[in-house]
Amino acid sequence: HVSPHTLEAYQRDIEQFHIFCKTNINALSPDDVSLKNIETFISFLRCQKLSARTILRKLSALRSFFKYCFDEALTKNNPAAKIAHRKSDYALPRSFSEKQMDTLLQIPSSKTLLGLRDRALLELFYASGVRASELINLKIIDLNIEESYVRVMGKRSKERLVPIGDQSLSCLTDYFEKSRPLLCKKQLKPWIFLNHNGNKLSRQGVWSIVKKQSTLAGIKRASPHMLRHSFATHLLESGADLRSIQMMLGHESLSTTQIYTHVSKRHLHQEYNRHHPRAKKSKL
Q1: How many angstroms separate the CA atoms of 172 and 117, rounded?
Q2: Average pLDDT in the 186-207 region?
Q3: What amino acid positions are annotated as catalytic residues?
Q4: Which of 214, 216, 265 is nearest to 101 (CA)?
């Protein structure tokens, strides 16, 4: 029940390990692989300067793969079973500051079709905290303007309702009235966000929009997922409770949402150091 995007990522990870094994340790089948070989692969990934999150995802793919092989009696052992789960290696999610977010949302032009679309997209992205894959699949019937919420179909086909604010609704209204009908080219399309050809916007399209508008706003190393992180971080810093944020993000476990408490502490630490006269060596 995982998304096609996750399946593709796992397939790439397993294929990368397969190539590594053939090239470096002459292992041609899963039975030829040992725990030491996997540890060597981890060292190889670290030398590639990959992020801790990326490496952990690749290890997760290998755990699932070897567990499947062992459970189905395709291998005699599971060399990945003894790999420790090291969640502490996760890097804290990066987010925009509130000032950066305000700047970014003002960048798209309200005088062009794509500018109106981009502003509505960024506003809804930030207002709802949805994933990029969820954003592109939102349909007009999922949006309730009168009740100010959007229905989101999340991972494993789990549905959730997320409230959205007046600013986002205002930008969406402008987009529906002045831009989307012309992008549709008189064709009936169910999705909220369309590309310049009138078709469903792709994940790559969302990446391109966020990258372009962030660059114009003077923000480097931006990604679509940073809007989701910003949504959660800014809510928490403004006093929202963790359980509500969990429900809006669509996290199955509260422990997943708790990473934002660490982000909030980091923000508090930065603010303390910035404003307190004796805070140079303070730590939270």
Answers
A1: 8
A2: 93
A3: 131, 155, 225, 228, 251, 260
A4: 214
